[in-house]
């Protein structure tokens, strides 16, 4: 559920994912709770993501940094602190990690995790400092379930699997072995057809809707 304790997961998300696992069992699947070694995942992500951030944003940062939001500026500045040695080490670790996940999947047709560890947060407020009742140093760690497989290039997709106490949707991630998109698509289709109650729009107060730009104190990233 939490990738070996690496990902903060809210109680509502954990309950929904466990219910989804039981749903797969009711469809005839043999479900086991298991996880591969994720101890070097944060180092892999720090190096590879920093490389991507610099490649994507450094020119815009130098030309339009004053127009960027504080969260984006923090990410760019953090990426600038990562040196070439750390990036190359992250790539070496990623190769070992890929083989570790590959060997793990030899035992299973696919695996399921939360799509992310928590439900949607507000754009017009600081990032939450808690997931459920637990304090978290980096709220963005809730996304590590997605990063854990995007760095491998393995086929993965998410499907709705429930709602939290506030009516916000919860996603289930399904991951398959290399080049087995067919397994992932088949599992997602079967689960969704068996649980149509999860496929609906979350309740929203349309009268309270306002432009996304209103949520930010600055205009955001200018795409020039």
How does the SSE layout of this entry go?
Blueprint: H1 11-26, H2 41-64, H3 70-80, H4 84-105, E1 111-114, E2 130-131, E3 134-135, H5 144-150, E4 156-163, E5 169-175, H6 181-194
Antiparallel strand pairs: 1-5, 2-3, 4-5
Helix pairs in contact: 2-3, 2-4
Structure, explained:
This protein has helices spanning 11-26, 41-64, 70-80, 84-105, 144-150, 181-194, and strands at residues 111-114, 130-131, 134-135, 156-163, 169-175. It starts with 10 loop residues before the first helix and ends in a 30-residue tail after the last helix. With 224 residues, the chain is mainly alpha-helical.
Number of helical regions = 6
Q: Tell me the number of structural domains.
A: 2
* Major sheet details: 3 strands, antiparallel
* Shape descriptor: globular
Notable features of this structure?
224 residues; mainly alpha; 2 domains; catalytic activity; Amidase domain-containing protein
Question: Quick summary of this structure?
Answer:
This protein has about 220 residues and is mainly α. It contains six helices and five strands; from the N terminus they run ααααβββαββα.
